[in-house]
Amino acid sequence: MLRKILVVGLLASSLSVLRPQQSSAPIQFETLSQTSKSWDGTTYKAYPTGQPQLSVLKVTLAPHTTMKWHTHPVPNAAYVLSGEITAETKDGTKKHFVAGEVIPEMVDTVHRGVTGDQPVVLIVFYAGTPGVPLSQPAGDAK
After folding, report:
1. What is the pLDDT along the chain (142 residues), one digit of tens a residue?
2. Domain 33-137, architecture per CATH
3. Could you give the 3-state DSSP secondary structure of residue 84?
4. What is the Rg, in whole angstroms, of the alpha carbon atoms belonging to the chain?
5. 100: left (phi over 0), alpha (psi -120 to 50) or beta
6. How far apart, in whole angstroms, are the C-alpha atoms of residue 17 and residue 88?
7. How far apart are CA 100 and CA 79, in angstroms?
8. pTM of the predicted protein model
């Protein structure tokens, strides 16, 4: 019984680290996305090897923007802060995303984004390595 009380006490004290310093309200967590596949259903293969380098970018796209065809050599995900964007591949596969949604990006697949009537603001998280670009233009794409 003493052992159970001790374990519960240790758990409670360790969870107190997650509370803000001067507030009685706990921090709330909400999983926005947890996936092993990109938006088109393709399974991610692996992370790049070498020293990890996380990059977080805020990207703002003007209304009615059609991005150039490109690829990403590393896993990444974009959170749509505002606006709407349609991701598409050259074979015609498309998926529409709006504010509050997460775009699990494609790796090594040519794709682009097309924005709607409002500016789009994205927060993009990349899991890469130093010296590896976050995005690359598609070689033969038009």
Report:
1. 434 433 344 444 444 445 445 556 799 889 999 999 999 999 999 988 999 999 999 999 999 999 999 999 999 999 999 999 999 999 999 999 999 999 999 999 999 999 999 999 999 999 999 999 999 999 754 4
2. Sandwich (2.60)
3. strand
4. 20
5. left
6. 43
7. 7
8. 0.78
